[in-house]
Structures are given as structure tokens and as C-alpha cells.
């Protein structure tokens, strides 16, 4: 069926909506592009005839044209959505992506990501006078100044802003300033205990 | 030509929030609590409006300067627990509101880049630009990045009649 | 050094500094820790809590976490050992010890700079005076003078000799006296006021006490009683003191109804039925698994069961209903159980003390009604839960959540665990008695839990072991014809780890010293181990529970017998 492979790509992306990036399906993309090319070539041939009046070919031409456009749309949607997911990861984690995610990205996506990082960093630097405001902090409204956190994994030593080092061992509880542990809570190393 | 508020930060040792001086232009000066309230309004508006609203960079700048002033004040103040804690909480909250406001705007810019840029073109020289300068740069850079990427991965390989961008196609 | 003013000497010095809190693994310590955490939250003191289950983990936790810390609080651990000697801290580190273990090590008491004790002063009155155990070192300098003078004329040496002989004699006497005093002082181990209670009173003096903290203090005091650490008189004293706090926090209106809203924690004082977990179990099972009644009526025997049936019948409680869940019984019956039991108890040889215990119960919302003893049993069960996939510290956090009342499912699971523990306890006692495994070895009775039985894994933890030992002793005394049994202590051994071949040995004092609950087995075990040159590990903070290899058991026991005779 025409444009089926493109639909496959879109479906694949939809299945992985829970956050992990599936590998860049280079193969399928190439196939889709090939299909588009063949359709186009076929169309080119027939178009000439159609111009000379053989109207029974027109519908075929239109069909192929529609298929080409559908392929294009699916392909662009696939790429765009992948970029969207990568962008979400930047906001969730940090500017360094974990290696298994990187493995699933193709070259150009990595470059795009780096460029996006640069843009974002430049933007954030211009805010405020003090070297900028990091917009990836403070994702949730702050409820209290200090929070009670529980350590879920052995994380080793952690240095706070005023220089004290805290040993984060599994199952130890700490009462720290919220701003300092926000990152670790997001990464899942600490668990915020609400009382 | 945006409004410029000149808020000075005379944060005294006591617990008073800023008092401001009158500013040179003939716009009214606002006290810091008023600025904060306006910022919160703008934040809520931005969060719930589906389209990008005109930017309020003056409010943002003012509050960020405020935060800085409060932080220096805290460092200089003696360690009177309660006031320091309350100031710190206030700083956290203000920072959250500012960050959230800017984040929402950024998300909308990223979603509707071309459209936003077009709108901005129209409004560049009027009183209510849609984007601040930094945001404009960001938007342009983002658009270029996106186009480059899509072109290099896919469009370049497509047959000629499909190999162009159509702005309408960018909106999903 | 004793802390005289809680606020000035302890609390204010902790402000604006980072504190390390090391907590022992029992319910009392956990309650005290939560009270302290609440106080710290009020004043935004940055802290770190690390649970420790023995001296080794105490050392390790201190070493790992000590960087940059100047204030360390030890809860229910560390009073009985010289803490400065053990941890070798730096000069500026201060230790605050809040511990119910007695006797307090003399070095901790007399260290004016680095160690502060948060305890009641009257409990430390038996400590030897400073001069009896410490001495200024003039003697040493004189002795070195003597050596220096050696090459000099013999006349001088001779003169020193007379004086120095006298001095040496006197010194020797003083040393012997000191050894004797220290031995007397450390011979018996016992427990002081519950740390949760001490913390609560301090919070009260700071005017920061709440109903929640009061409940934690109640749980701490009840934990001490449930695990036989304090005699009944002390428990009653504490209960009376707590009662005044309860009435202060939970005021009742003119019609007797509580003025607090239903969603708040409400505590009330009652003369509770001393039946373990009866609200969450069937009445019948609860009676069979409660120590005083079970022992008096000997409910593990057939005859005892028949008597129980008689008892229930006489009270007018239908058997069918007694074997249902308590909450499914008729309302009239439920409300009258206590009255009827008290009416008929004398005929069956029971006393008021066995049936009724003055205690507190709490209500939280419409559904959750728990009495203090049940709460303690649930927390203890979750602290000692046997899930091998979980670390001990996971259990600590689970028990902490239960005390927080954050999720009723966890509390229910813990109550189920408590029921399982009680069931295995009773069946173990039953099998010990049926197979006559309790043997008299002269100065004490001893019994071993067989390795490899299904229930034996329950007894590898200290708290269950204490309860098992006590239940066994009491059950044995109620069936045996030996008149001396009441005055014999019990030593119980339980397998700890089959792969390593280790077992736990616990010694508890005899039943007729119940008024004092002083335990001499700590010292006895130490001496036995020394005399046989064996390596025994005392891992926890209670010296009357030790760990050793199974092969060494018989040698150890022989030594113990000879010491105690």
C-alpha cells in the first residue's frame, strides 16, 4: 500500500510516547524517501502523457501526488516529534544526555540538540544582571524553604552551596534547603518526604 | 521604547520591602509589591492564553533586580533567623514566578515559531512587541535550527516538487 | 556532663549548625527521633538522620558522616560506652547523648567538654563520685623523679623508698577499691526513663509540644513496658505524668465529648484490656496470645483450652462470636467484655493486673482507632520484618512512616506482621514446653530454639527474642512443680544464621526480681567469654544479647555455670 511505511514510522513514535526515544529508524526513512522518488518518477512520465490529453491517467497522477504529499507529511511529523521529545529531555535532565538516549539519536539530531543548547544558554544568560537565570530550575512552586529528603541510592558525597559535604547513603534522611536538592529530587536520587 | 521603570533597591535592615523613587519619565513608578502583583497577573495570563501575549520585560527585569538586591541584603544581614528565612522564601517564590512566566513564553515560541516571527515583524515598531530582544534572537535561531535539521535529514532527499517548506505544514 | 537546662545547653547550641543524629533500632528511639525532627523543623536546623543497630555500625556511620559536623546527637545508643574513646572525634565535636540504657559510662558522665547527657538527674544518682574513679597523676611524676634520682646518692633513694612504698601501697589500695566500685556499678544493666518521654518533656519546656508529640511519647513509654525494660511501677508513674498532658491537649466539653474535630488526632486514657491486638483479631486468638492470661490459664494445653471455653461461657460470650473478628461481634458484647472479664476473673486465678492495663488509645478520623500497645507491636513487627530483600534501614524507614500515620495500608500490613510474630511466639513456647526443652542448669534455666524450624527465623532479632524469653520463662514457671523456678533466670539461644553457624544468646533476670528488672547477664557473659578465651560479639546496644558460634555454645555454658554459682 502506498505510504504505509510512513504510517509505520508515525505509529512507532506514538507507541513510544512514554518518554523513551526509539532508535532513529534510518532504514525506514530511506525507504519512504525512495518510495516518494519512485512515485515522483512515475508521475513525471505519466504527466507528459496526461498533458497530451489522456485523461484516464489523471486520477493515477493525482493519487501518486497525494501519496507523495502524505509521505512528506508523515516524515516531517516523525522528525519533528522526535525533536520535541529530545527537547523535553533537555528540560527534564540537563544539557548532557545519558548515553543510551544519545545512542538512539542520529548525527543531525545530536547537532540540532547542541545548537538548541547553545540557543537556550544564550537566552538564559541575557536574563537578569547576574549572569542569567537558569530556567530549568524551580520547575515546581516552592512550598517550604527546607525539605526532608530520603536518599534512595548510594550517591556518595554531595556539596552544598555553603561548602558542607553531606554523605548521601541509601536510607539516610536529611533536612536540607530545597533549592539545593531540587536537582537530585528530579533525578530520583532523593525522595521528598511530605509531612 | 518599552516602559522603563527605575526601581531602586533600598532594602534596609528592617523588614520593609522596597521603596522606590520617582522615575524620570512621566510614567508612574510602581512599588515593588505592585510590580510583583502585575507580574503574577501576566504570568497567569500567559499560562492560560493559547497564544503568545506581548512581553512584559520591564516587570521581569525589575523582579530579577529585586531578587539580587534581596540576596545581597541577606548576606550582609546578621543571622536573625526568622527574617532571613522569610526573605529566602520570598526570593524562591519570586524566582519561581519569573521562571514559570518565561518558560511558558518559550514553549509557545517553540511551538509557533514561524507564526510568531511573522507577527513580530508586523509589530516590531509599535508599542507592544511580542518578543523581547533576547526572545527574538532565540526564536530566529530556533527556526533556523529546525529548518536546517529537517532539510538536511529529509527534505534534501525528497523529489523536487516536495522539497520546499510550507509554513502551514509546520503547524501540526 | 549532665545537661541542666535543655534550652540553653542543648537546643540553642544547635541552632544554625548542621547536626548528625544517630538513632538506635527500637521503637522508643524512633519516637524520640521523630520528636526531635519536629523540633528541628520548627527552627529550621539542618540535620541528617542515620539509623544504627550496634556499636560497629555506630562507628561506621560516624566515620562516614562526620565531615564538617560539630554536633552529634545519639538517641538510645552510646551511653554505656566511652563514646569519646570509641569514636576518636576531633576537639570541637560535641556529643549529646539521650539514652535510656543504664549504667552510664563514667567517662561520659565526667567529660565536661565533649559529652552532654540528656537524662533525668535523679536516675544518675548511683554513679560513683569523681574521686573514687579518677585520680590526679601526681604519682606518676613522683615515680619518674624516683627514676631520675637513681644515679644519685643512695641516701636519697632510700628516703624516697619509704615514702614511695607507702604511696604505692595506697595507690594499689585505691586501684582495688576502684575496680570493686566499678564492678558494682556496672554489674547490673537496666533502663531509665524512655527517651521519647525525655524528649517530649523537653519539647514541653520549650512550649513546642503538640498532640502528635504526646502520642509519640506514649508509644515510647509503652514500648519500654511491652519489652519488659521497666517495672510496672515506673510505667505507672510515667502513665500518670502523661495523663496530665493528655487531658491538657485533648480537652473534653461539658458532655464528655472531645472538643477536637474528628480529623485531628485524639488521645484518650483508658484502662485497656491487656489483650494483644484484640481489636484487630478475634477475641479468642487474642486471649490465647496474650502473655499474662495465657500463662495463668496455660492455654497451650488442652486442659487450658477447656478452661478458656468455660471462662468464656461463664462470661456469656458465645464461642462463635469470640472466634470472629472483634469488630464483627455484637456491639453490646463488645462493650461489656472488659466488665465481664473483671467479674469472673478471680474464679480462674486471674488478677486485675493481668487483665487490665492503664494505657492510652488514639483515634484519627472515623476508622482508625489504635491503642498504644498495639501500635508498639505493629512498629516492632515492621522494624524486625523478615523480608530478606529489604535492608534493615528500609525497615527503619517503614516504621518511621507508620509512626507518621501516612498510610493506613502500611499500618495494616504491620499489624498483620505483629499477629504472625505473636503466633510464632506462642507456638515456639508451646513446643519448648511440650518437649521439655527447658532444662535447669543449676544457677539458671536454659532452652534452645531448634534450628531449621519454620518459626525460628522470627527470633533472630533482639526485640522478638526478649519477648520470647520472657514468655518462655513465665510459661515455664506456671507449669513447673519446681518451687525455685521463680527465682531462676533464663538463658535462651536462638539460631541467627544457618550459613555462618551463629546463634544469639539472651539472658533475662528471674521473675521474682520483677520490681527492679535489673539484668546481670551482660557482665556474666563478658566474664564467661574472657575465661574461655572465646570470641563473642555483642553487636547491639544491649549487653545481655550476644552472638556466638554454635560450636562454642557448650563450652560457653560451662563457663557461665561456674561463674554464676
TrEMBL record, chain A:
One of its GO terms (cellular component) is GINS complex. This is DNA replication complex GINS protein PSF1. Residues 33-127 form the GINS subunit domain. InterPro entries: GINS_A, GINS_bundle-like_dom_sf, GINS_Psf1, PSF1_C. Required for correct functioning of the GINS complex, a complex that plays an essential role in the initiation of DNA replication, and progression of DNA replication forks. GINS complex is a core component of CDC45-MCM-GINS (CMG) helicase, the molecular machine that unwinds template DNA during replication, and around which the replisome is built. Required for correct functioning of the GINS complex, a complex that plays an essential role in the initiation of DNA replication, and progression of DNA replication forks. GINS complex seems to bind preferentially to single-stranded DNA. Keywords: Chromosome, DNA replication, Nucleus. GO terms for biological process: DNA strand elongation involved in mitotic DNA replication. Component of the GINS complex. Belongs to the GINS1/PSF1 family. The keyword NAD does not apply. It is found in: Chromosome; Nucleus. Its main location: nucleus. Gene3D superfamilies: 1.20.58.1030. Transmembrane segments: none annotated. Residues 143-194 form the DNA replication complex GINS protein PSF1 C-terminal domain.
TrEMBL record, chain B:
Residues 1-30 are annotated as: Disordered. One of its GO terms (cellular component) is GINS complex. It comes from the Eukaryota. Residues 16-29 have a biased composition (Acidic residues). It holds the Pfam family Sld5. InterPro entries: GINS_A (IPR021151), GINS_bundle-like_dom_sf (IPR036224), GINS_Sld5 (IPR008591), Sld5_GINS_A (IPR038749). It is found in: Nucleus. One of its GO terms (biological process) is DNA-templated DNA replication. The keyword Nucleus applies. CDD domains: GINS_A_Sld5. The GINS complex plays an essential role in the initiation of DNA replication. Belongs to the GINS4/SLD5 family. This is DNA replication complex GINS protein SLD5.
From TrEMBL, chain C:
PANTHER family: CDC45-RELATED PROTEIN (PTHR10507), CELL DIVISION CONTROL PROTEIN 45 HOMOLOG (PTHR10507:SF0). It comes from the Eukaryota. GO terms for molecular function: chromatin binding; DNA replication origin binding; single-stranded DNA binding. Residues 135-152 have a biased composition (Acidic residues). One of its GO terms (biological process) is double-strand break repair via break-induced replication. It comes from Elysia marginata. It is found in: Nucleus. Its main location: nucleus. This is Cell division control protein 45 homolog. GO terms for cellular component: DNA replication preinitiation complex. InterPro entries: CDC45. Belongs to the CDC45 family. Keywords: Cell cycle, Cell division, DNA replication, Nucleus. Pfam families: CDC45 (PF02724). Residues 135-159 are annotated as: Disordered.
Amino acid at each position: 500500500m502506498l505510504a504505509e511505511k510512513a504510517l509505520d514510522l508515525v505509529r512507532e513514535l506514538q507507541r513510544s510516547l512514554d518518554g523513551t526515544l526509539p532508535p532513529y529508524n534510518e532504514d525506514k526513512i530511506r525507504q519512504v524517501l525512495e518510495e516518494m522518488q519512485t512515485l515522483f518518477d512515475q508521475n513525471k512520465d505519466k504527466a507528459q502523457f496526461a498533458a497530451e490529453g489522456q485523461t484516464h491517467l489523471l486520477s493515477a497522477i493525482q493519487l501518486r501526488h497525494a501519496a507523495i504529499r502524505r509521505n512528506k507529511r508523515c516524515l516531517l511529523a516523525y522528525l519533528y516529534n522526535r525533536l520535541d521529545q529530545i527537547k523535553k529531555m533537555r528540560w527534564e535532565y540537563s544539557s548532557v544526555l545519558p548515553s543510551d538516549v544519545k545512542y538512539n539519536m542520529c548525527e543531525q539530531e545530536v547537532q540540532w540538540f547542541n545548537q538548541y543548547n547553545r540557543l537556550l544558554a544564550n537566552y538564559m544568560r541575557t536574563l537578569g544582571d547576574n549572569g542569567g537565570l537558569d530556567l530549568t530550575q524551580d520547575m515546581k512552586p516552592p512550598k517550604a524553604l527546607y525539605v526532608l529528603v530520603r536518599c534512595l541510592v548510594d550517591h556518595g558525597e554531595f556539596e552544598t552551596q555553603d561548602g558542607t559535604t553531606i554523605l548521601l547513603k541509601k536510607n539516610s534522611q536529611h533536612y536540607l534547603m530545597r533549592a539545593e536538592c531540587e536537582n537530585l529530587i528530579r533525578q530520583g536520587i532523593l525522595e521528598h518526604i511530605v509531612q | 521604547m518599552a516602559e522603563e521603570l527605575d526601581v531602586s533597591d533600598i532594602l534596609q535592615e528592617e523588614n520593609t520591602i522596597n521603596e522606590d523613587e520617582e522615575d524620570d519619565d512621566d510614567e508612574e513608578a510602581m512599588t515593588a509589591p505592585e510590580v510583583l502583583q502585575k507580574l503574577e497577573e501576566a504570568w497567569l495570563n500567559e499560562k492560560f492564553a493559547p497564544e503568545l501575549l506581548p512581553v512584559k520585560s520591564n516587570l521581569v527585569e525589575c523582579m530579577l533586580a529585586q531578587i539580587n538586591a534581596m540576596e545581597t541584603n541577606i548576606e550582609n544581614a546578621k543571622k536573625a533567623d526568622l527574617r532571613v528565612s522569610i526573605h529566602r522564601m520570598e526570593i524562591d517564590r519570586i524566582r519561581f514566578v519569573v521562571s514559570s512566566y518565561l518558560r511558558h513564553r518559550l514553549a509557545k515560541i517553540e511551538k509557533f515559531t514561524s507564526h510568531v516571527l511573522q507577527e513580530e515583524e508586523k509589530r516590531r515598531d509599535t508599542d507592544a512587541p511580542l518578543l523581547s530582544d533576547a526572545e527574538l534572537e532565540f526564536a530566529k535561531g530556533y527556526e533556523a535550527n529546525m529548518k536546517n535539521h529537517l532539510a538536511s535529514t529529509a527534505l534534501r532527499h525528497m523529489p523536487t516538487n516536495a522539497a520546499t517548506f510550507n509554513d502551514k505544514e509546520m503547524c501540526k | 556532663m549532665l545537661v541542666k537546662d535543655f534550652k540553653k545547653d542543648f537546643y540553642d547550641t544547635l541552632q544554625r549548625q548542621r547536626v548528625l543524629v544517630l538513632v538506635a533500632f527500637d521503637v522508643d528511639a524512633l519516637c524520640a527521633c521523630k520528636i526531635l525532627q519536629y523540633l528541628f523543623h520548627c527552627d529550621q536546623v539542618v540535620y541528617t538522620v542515620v539509623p544504627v543497630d550496634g556499636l560497629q555500625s555506630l562507628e561506621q556511620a560516624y566515620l562516614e558522616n562526620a565531615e564538617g559536623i560539630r554536633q552529634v546527637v545519639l538517641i538510645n545508643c552510646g551511653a554505656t560506652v566511652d563514646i569519646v574513646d570509641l569514636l576518636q572525634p576531633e576537639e570541637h565535636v560535641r556529643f549529646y547523648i539521650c539514652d535510656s540504657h543504664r549504667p552510664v559510662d563514667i567517662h561520659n558522665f565526667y567529660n565536661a567538654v565533649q559529652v552532654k547527657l540528656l537524662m533525668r538527674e535523679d536516675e544518675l544518682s548511683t554513679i560513683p563520685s569523681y574521686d573514687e574513679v579518677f585520680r590526679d597523676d601526681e604519682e606518676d611524676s613522683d615515680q619518674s623523679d624516683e627514676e631520675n634520682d637513681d644515679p644519685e646518692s643512695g641516701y636519697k633513694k632510700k628516703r624516697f623508698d619509704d615514702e614511695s612504698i607507702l604511696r604505692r601501697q595506697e595507690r594499689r589500695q585505691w586501684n582495688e577499691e576502684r575496680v570493686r566500685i566499678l564492678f558494682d556499678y556496672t554489674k547490673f544493666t537496666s533502663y531509665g526513663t524512655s527517651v521519647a518521654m525525655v524528649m517530649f518533656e523537653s519539647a514541653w519546656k520549650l512550649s513546642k509540644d503538640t498532640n502528635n508529640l504526646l502520642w509519640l511519647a506514649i508509644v515510647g513509654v509503652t514500648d519500654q513496658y511491652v519489652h519488659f525494660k521497666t517495672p510496672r511501677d515506673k510505667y505507672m508513674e510515667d502513665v500518670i505524668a502523661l495523663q496530665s498532658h493528655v487531658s491538657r491537649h485533648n480537652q473534653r466539653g461539658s458532655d464528655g465529648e472531645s472538643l477536637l474535630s474528628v480529623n485531628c488526632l485524639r488521645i484518650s486514657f483508658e484502662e485497656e484490656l491487656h489483650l494483644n491486638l484484640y481489636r484487630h483479631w478475634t477475641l479468642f486468638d487474642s486471649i490465647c496470645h496474650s502473655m499474662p492470661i495465657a500463662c495463668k490459664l496455660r492455654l497451650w494445653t488442652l486442659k487450658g483450652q477447656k478452661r478458656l471455653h468455660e471462662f468464656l461461657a461463664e462470661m456469656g460470650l458465645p464461642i462463635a462470636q469470640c472466634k470472629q473478628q472483634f469488630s464483627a461481634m455484637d456491639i453490646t458484647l463488645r462493650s461489656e467484655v472488659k466488665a465481664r472479664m473483671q467479674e469472673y476473673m478471680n474464679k480462674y486465678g486471674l488478677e486485675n493486673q493481668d487483665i487490665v492495663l492503664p494505657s492510652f488509645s488514639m483515634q484519627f478520623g472515623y476508622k482508625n482507632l489504635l491503642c498504644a500497645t498495639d501500635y508498639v507491636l505493629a512498629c516492632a513487627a515492621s522494624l524486625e520484618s523478615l523480608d530478606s530483600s529489604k535492608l534493615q534501614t528500609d525497615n527503619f524507614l517503614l516504621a518511621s512512616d507508620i509512626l507518621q500515620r501516612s498510610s493506613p495500608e502500611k499500618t495494616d500490613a504491620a499489624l498483620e506482621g505483629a499477629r504472625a510474630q505473636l503466633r510464632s511466639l506462642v507456638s515456639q513456647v508451646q513446643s519448648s514446653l511440650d518437649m521439655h526443652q527447658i532444662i535447669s542448669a543449676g544457677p539458671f534455666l536454659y532452652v534452645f530454639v531448634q534450628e531449621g524450624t519454620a518459626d525460628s527465623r522470627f527470633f533472630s532479632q533482639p526485640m522478638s527474642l526478649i519477648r520470647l524469653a520472657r514468655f518462655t520463662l513465665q510459661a515455664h514457671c506456671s507449669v513447673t512443680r519446681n518451687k525455685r523456678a521463680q527465682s531462676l533466670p533464663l538463658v535462651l539461644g536462638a539460631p541467627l544464621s544457618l550459613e555462618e553457624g551463629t546463634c544469639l544468646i539472651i539472658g533475662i533476670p528471674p521473675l521474682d526480681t520483677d520490681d527492679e528488672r535489673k539484668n546481670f547477664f551482660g557482665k556474666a557473659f563478658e566474664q564467661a567469654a574472657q575465661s574461655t578465651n572465646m570470641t563473642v560479639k555483642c553487636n547491639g546496644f544491649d549487653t545481655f544479647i550476644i552472638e556466638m558460634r554454635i560450636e562454642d555454645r557448650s563450652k560457653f555454658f560451662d563457663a557461665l555455670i561456674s561463674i554464676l554459682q
